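Quick check before the chapter quiz. The format below is the same one you will see on the exam, so make sure you can read both the input and the output lines.
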Amino acid sequence: MMGDGAAGRRRRLNGFQAIGRRRGWRWSAPRVALGLAMTLAMGLGVAGQAGAAAPPAVDLVVDRGDGDAQVERLPWEAGMTGLALLGRSSLPVVTSGGAVCAIDGLGCPATDCFCACKGARGCRFWGYHHGDAAGAWTEAGTGPAEFQVPANGLEGWVWGRAAPLAAPAPWRSGRLALHWLSRFQDLQGGLAGHVGFSAEAAFGARGLGLDLDRLRPATVGPGLRDFMQGAAADYARGAAAAGKAAAGLAAAGGDPRRAGGVDLVARLTASYDPATGRYGAGTWDHAWAILGLAAGGEPLPPAALVALTALADPAGGWSADGRSEPDADSSGLALQAARAAGLPADDPTLRAALDFLARSQGADGGWGHGGQSNINSTGYAAAGILAAGEDPRAGRWAAGHPSPLDFLIAAQAADGRLRFGATDEEVSDMVASLQALPALAGRPLPLPGPAPALRRALAWLRAQQQPDGGFGGFGPGSSLDAVLALAAAGQDPAPRHATGRTPRDYLLTVGPDYAERGLAAAGKLAAGLRVLAVDPGDLPRGDARFDLRAHLVRAASGAIGAREQSSWDLAWAILGLTALEEPLPPGLVQDLADAGSANGGWGYARNAEAADPDSTGLALSALAAAGWGRDRPAVQEAEAWLLGAQLAEGGWGFDGAASVDSTAGVLLGLTAQGHRVNGAGWMRGGPGGWGRQGGREAILGLQATDGSFQGPSPLLSTTAGIQALAGRPWPWLAAGQWRLWLPLLARVR
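Here is the expected output.
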């Protein structure tokens, strides 16, 4: 760590803590103790020790089956049953006898406890499970009213799935810490009114799969992103502060180039010295600047990586200023920055830094100063180890002593905080808990943001517009994809080319012929024209007129039960008719439901032998548009199939590799059905489900340097990626009366 020694750091921290304990306190960067607050927020903690071991407890995981999950740590008592444990949670529970009917409003009434298990297909209920030390689950063989919960056990409940999401100890610890930290989120959305703390909360929430606007119990009002956008200008006065603000804002879903009228990237660029290749002065300035730029998808000058490696100690590791003895905090931060800047995992500087951390690790598994480990240093070091490609839970990091993750978890108090010292000191505990979150989540920095990716993708897409107003690619279908993507991102869906022509002009010219290619084409055209404010009942066609509305109604009615009509035909017919607010022909929705594959989900062809993610996502969107929700067996079976088909990197695709097109379609379909697609339940990870990422991360990882998304057709992949990353429904033009999610995948060409 940096600073003037442990005693001085303690004095400064204690002074800041006294301010924090005032009733009704609020910190803000321009006001109270800015210098110290920034120091703490950048990881400059103090040496301390973890408190005594907590009394026996039980972790409870409640998985709603829609991506949302809650973790609570509850006191254990001898003889406590699973039902009694659930009753002690903060969630309201409805029971009937020994059966659990509803948790937190989800489920059935006590008078009809298994109301969602009627009919030949589909059965949803609250399933009871026991967890092991790794966070894996076994279905309970004894009812919750009879089973006696062991001390320090793990209990799980899940709605409508075979088992709860994997819940390894570090992930549970991180979620519990975030819950405790939520008390510091103020009415402006920030954590303790401070950008640095808010950035660290964003890192943790993003990695642990928690909605960034739901740290507080209330679900309305500003969130971390809103606060950081407004307060970043005052905070980001140096390279380290600007880099941390940029990285935090990107992780929270904001754009570092648009931070409340301030361009954080420009501030970082202004701190760059071409002569040295550095941003700012020492290691912390330079490393945070690199992480902020990388999180925003900004290019780095090659000299920046050279300068970072030059700051390393010849014997391994980094110090804060590049001249002093190396320390774990600076080394962990620099390792994350080095990897973000492209340093290979086998680079000698990186390997030497890992060797330094191995030499300096304490017998308790942690790192610190003055021979005493602390949470802050251990959190930074463990995140650096993760960034370097090693697992801090295993190998040399746990050889003959606890691992760094064991050290962090052992410091957790019953209320969820990671205790910095032996006494309860809220400020120091808050900082320690925040700085442990990336390590507990298994997600080192940077966490690339969807907003910068959207900005770059939209710029690339606009550059693809052709002189005729369309978007090339595969003809009208590609132009409709572009229209729908622009609308989803809140942009003008009819940009004007230098020739003066717009997509509206192009589609009016080719639309009627395109609609007659098939039912899917007609439905997709109807959706696009509705966005463009074109009357689909009166399209020009030479000297005549074409009534797309009537054509689509006739074609959809004739498609019911027809073997030659694919699932895409049926789905796009539903989406197109719904866009036009036309009544759906009787039997059309059921026909789509019945067109699925035998293993759940849908393939392109009716009753395909095997499902695929593209078709399944599209069908889920169409069923949602028709009012079919998660209570329908066809939807339930598709969700189960998608869960099984999700890849380790969080996305979906073919031949074991995630694709933007497939992943985007699935995310849109699941969102239409009410799933929290960025929640932990739709995130996957490495061994034991740790270090999770979801479909959004899979898409972000496939963006090219020019802003497009990789795929066989960059135009198709980019329009798909834009709509998925936009992350919200977009309104039709009917006075904003209702909203509908539409997929954008384009096998219709």
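If your answer matched, good. Residues 1-51, 730-749 have pLDDT under 50 and may be disordered.
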